[in-house]
Design goal:
Distance between the termini: 42 Å
Shape: globular
Helix content: 25-40%
Number of strands: 5
Strand content: 5-15%
Bound molecules: NADP nicotinamide-adenine-dinucleotide phosphate
Radius of gyration: 19 Å
Largest sheet: 5 strands, parallel
Strand order of the largest sheet: 1-2-3-4-5
Oligomer: single chain
Length: about 200
């Protein structure tokens, strides 16, 4: 990118063996030295963010968030809204689960670790498929794939600044990136949120 500094340097996970004070003091040295412009964190809860705030001014928190994983809505999002922190939602497609391609009976390739994750167990594939069927008419009407609709819903949620969508190949990357050529209005977003009451996955 032709720069000798990092725009946003995010600590990947809270380190259980190092006090947050120590980590943040190290980051503040990097800012003082001009190597980093803004500091951020990843996978911090609201209490950990407040602790980090004593030493630096974190600009962002990168956390998991999807239709299937909404736990940040209760405490972290209100904290970030109140304290003006950006939230970068990672895995908004829940690693492919919410694209509609994983039907009940889905067989993962050898070495694909998703088969060990509860979201991808047979019962959850069935429940997710039923939920996604509810979204199909909206996706069809708006000429969106299910994945694109899920991305747009994610971006509409209060406090979400960015959706960090992954892609296996260029086709997926293009499909995902072009989701934002369309927009969901408030009513469509609320209808989808209402359908989410039907998405109860088992741990
Ligand atoms: N800070 C952290 O701790 C942390 C942790 C995890 C991820 N992240 C970040 O978040 C980014 C995204 O995470 P993620 O890859 O888990 O995100 P995701 O968007 O939930 O899932 C991406 C996966 O969904 C499938 N997919 C994506 N687009 C598709 C499409 N158009 N059609 C069909 N399938 C599609 C692909 O799986 P298939 O292989 O099945 O095609 C792809 O690998 C990562 O690149 C990483 O930078 C951060």
């Amino acid at each position: 990118m032709g720069t000798d500094y990092i725009d946003l340097y995010q600590i990947h996970w809270p380190d259980s063996t190092t006090p947050i004070a120590e980590s943040m003091e190290a980051v503040s040295r990097l800012i003082e030295q001009g190597k980093v412009r803004y500091a951020g964190v990843c996978n911090y809860n609201a209490v950990q963010m407040a602790e980090a705030e004593k030493y630096i001014t974190p600009a962002s928190n990168q956390v998991p968030y999807s239709m299937a994983k909404r736990s940040i809505e209760s405490e972290l999002i209100p904290y970030c809204l109140e304290n003006k922190k950006s939230v970068l939602a990672y895995s908004p497609l829940e690693r492919g689960l919410l694209t509609g391609k994983m039907k009940p009976g889905h067989v993962f390739a050898g070495g694909d670790h998703r088969k060990e994750v509860s979201f991808f167990k047979e019962e959850n594939l069935k429940r997710t498929d039923e939920f996604l069927n509810l979204l199909k008419p909206i996706a069809k009407e708006k000429h969106l794939t299910l994945g694109q609709l899920v991305i747009l819903w994610t971006l509409q949620q209060s406090g979400i600044t960015i959706a960090l969508v992954g892609a296996r190949n260029s086709e997926q990357a293009i499909e995902n990136a072009t989701a934002v050529d369309t927009a969901l209005n408030q009513e469509e977003t609320e209808v989808i949120t209402g359908y989410l009451e039907h998405l109860e996955l088992i741990a």
